[in-house]
Amino acid sequence: MAQFFAMGGYARFVWPAYGVAVIVLVGLLVHSVIFYRRAQRALDAEERR
Amino acid sequence: MSGFAALLTRDLRLAFRQGGDVANVVAFFALAVILFPFGVGPDPDLLARIAAGVLWVTALLAALLSLERLFDADFQDGSLEALGLMPVPLEIQVLAKCVAHWLTTGLPLTIIAPLLALVLHFDAAGYPALIAALLLGTPVLSLIGAIGAALTLGARRAGVLLSLLVLPLYIPVLIFGVAASEAAALGLESRPHLLLLAALLAGSLALAPWAAAAALRQALE
Amino acid sequence: MQRFANPARFMRLSAALLPWCSVAAAMLIAIGLFGALFIAPPDYQQGEAVKIMYVHVPCAWLASLVYAVMAVASAVALIWRHPLAHIAAESAAPIGAGFTFVCLASGSLWGEPMWGTWWVWDARLTSVLVLFFLYLGFIALANAFDDRTRGSRAAAILAIVGVVNLPIIKFSVDWWNTLHQKDSVFLFGKSTIAPSMLWPMLVMAAGFLFLFAVLLMLRMRTALLRAKLRALRFGA
C-alpha cells in the first residue's frame, strides 16, 4: 500500500499530475452539468409563463 | 500594380501625417532597451548574453504598439467600406497596409537596433545576422499583426485582446530571430535559423493577407 | 420555429447519445486508470514516473483532436453558415483548453524528475503552449464583441488560421532535435511502445474521447437551450 503511494520515490510528481487531471476534467464536467441544469430550469420556467 | 502603389502611397502618407507613430515606436524601443542596463546592472558579459533576447522582445513589443491603429482609423470613418468596394482585391489592400506598417515600424527598428546593440555590448560578430534576422522577421510581425488587428476591429478592450492573440503567434519569430542573432554572436552557424525565418516570411506573405481580408470582410458585414 | 428544425434534431440525437457516452467514458476511464496504476509495469529507465504518461499522452492527443474539431466546425460555420457549427466550435474550446492545460501541467511534472527541468523552449512544448493560447484567444475573441455573431465569426477565422500549429506540434519532434522524446505510438504502422503500456494509454484516450463527446453535447445543449430562452423572452 505504502509502496503504491510512494510511486518509487516519484510520488510528488505522479500524484499531482493525476490530481490536476482529475480537478480540471471533473471540474469541466461539473461546470457543464450545472450550467446545463440551470438553462433547463430557466427554460422550463419561461415556458410555463 | 498601380492600384497597389496608389494604396501604399496613401497609407504611407497617412502614417507620416499622423507623424507620431514612427517616433513613438523608435522612442519606445530605445528607451526600453536602455532601461535594461539600469535594471540588470552594467556587467558587460551579462548584457552581451541577454542582448539578442532583449533587442528582439522590445522590438516585438514596439511593433505591437502601432498595430491597433492599422485598420482602426479607416474602420471608424467608414473608408474601410469604401476600400472594400474598390476593384483592387482586399487582400492586396491588406498587403499595402502591412508594407506601410513595416516601413514605419519594422524598418526603423532594424535601423536603430545595431546602435542599441552597442549599448548592450552585443558581440560585433553578430551584427550581420542580427540585421538579416530583423529584416526577415519584422515583416512577419506586421503580417501576423494585421490578422490580429483585423480580427479585433471594434472589439471591447481591443488592445489587450490583440496582444493575447498576436503574441503567441509571434513566439516562433522571436525564437528563430534570437537564435540567429545569438548563433552569429557566438561564432556559430546562423543560416539555418535565418532560413526558417525566411520560410516564416514566405508563409505569412501567403496566409496573412487572405486571413486578414476575411476578417475585415466579416467586420464590415 | 423553423430555425430550430436542425437544432431539434441535434437535441434528440444528443439526448439519446448522452447516457451511452457517459457510461462508456466512465467505464473506459476506470479501466484505463486501473490498468495504468495497478497493472502496467514500471519503466526500466523511468521507474514509476512513467505512470504520468497515462494521463499526459491521452490529454495531448485530445488537445490536438479537439482543436481540429473546433477548426472544422469553424470552417463549416463560415462556409455554409450552419448555425450549429459556431455553437459546436465555441462549446469545444474550453474543453480543448482543459486538455491542453492538463497536458502541459502533467508534462511539466514529468519533465522535472526525468529531464531535470520544469520547462524547456523546445519545438513541441512551445507549439503546445501556443495551442493553449490559441484556445484562450479563441474564447476571448468570441466574447469580445457586443454583437455575438461578429465575435463567433472572428473567432472562427482565428481557429482556422491557428491550424498551421497542428502539423508543427505533430512533426516538431521529427523536424528538430528536441528534448521531448519522439512519438512511439502510430496510427498507421507498428507502435514502438511495449503492449503492456500501450493498452492502458489507448483505453484512457478512448475514455477521454467519450468524455469530450459528453462535455461537448452538454455544452451545446446548454447553448441551444439558452438561445431558445432568448427567443422566447424577446419574441421570435
List the helices and strands and how they pair.
The complex is a heterotrimer of chains A (49), B (221) and C (236).
Chain A: H1 2-6, H2 11-48
Chain B: H1 2-18, H2 20-40, H3 44-65, H4 69-76, H5 79-84, H6 90-104, H7 106-119, H8 127-151, H9 158-185, H10 191-220
Chain C: H1 5-39, H2 53-80, H3 83-115, H4 123-142, H5 148-161, H6 165-175, H7 195-233
Helix pairs in contact in C: 1-7, 2-3, 2-5, 2-7, 3-4, 3-7, 4-5, 4-6
Characterization of this structure:
Chain A has helices at 2-6, 11-48. Chain A has 49 residues and is mainly alpha-helical. The termini of chain A are far apart. Chain B is built from ten helices and no strands. In chain B, helix 7 crosses helix 8 (127-151) and helix 9 packs antiparallel against helix 10 (191-220). Chain B is elongated. The mean pLDDT of chain B is 88. By secondary structure, chain C is an all-alpha fold. The model of chain C has no long low-confidence stretch (mean pLDDT 90). The interface between B and C is medium-sized, with 25 and 23 residues.
How would you summarize this macromolecular structure in one to three sentences?
The complex is a heterotrimer of chains A (49), B (221) and C (236). Chain A has helices spanning 2-6, 11-48. By secondary structure, chain A is an all-alpha fold.
Descriptors:
heterotrimer, A: 49 residues, mainly alpha, 2 helices, 88% helix, B: 221 residues, 84% helix, elongated
Q: How large, in whole angstroms, is the Cα Rg of chain C?
A: 20 Å
Q: How would you spell out the order of helices and strands of chain C?
A: HHHHHHH
pLDDT < 50 stretches of chain C: none
Helical proportion of chain C, percent range: over 70%
Q: Which structural category fits the helices and strands of chain C? A: mainly alpha
Supply the helix-strand structural class of chain A. Answer: mainly alpha
- Name the overall outline of chain A: rod-shaped
Overall average residue pLDDT of chain A: 90
Helix run count of chain A: 2
| Largest beta-sheet details of chain A | none
Low-confidence stretches of chain A: none
How would a textbook summarize the main sheet of chain C?
Answer: none
Report the C-alpha radius of gyration of chain A, rounded.
20 Å
Major protein interface: A-C, 27 and 35 residues
Task: Tell me which oligomeric state these chains represent.
Answer: heterotrimer
N-to-C series of helices and strands of chain A: HH
Described by the principal axes of the CA atoms, the overall outline of chain C is globular
Instruction: Determine the strand fraction of chain A and express it as a percent band.
Output: under 5%
Count of runs of 4 or more consecutive helical residues of chain C: 7
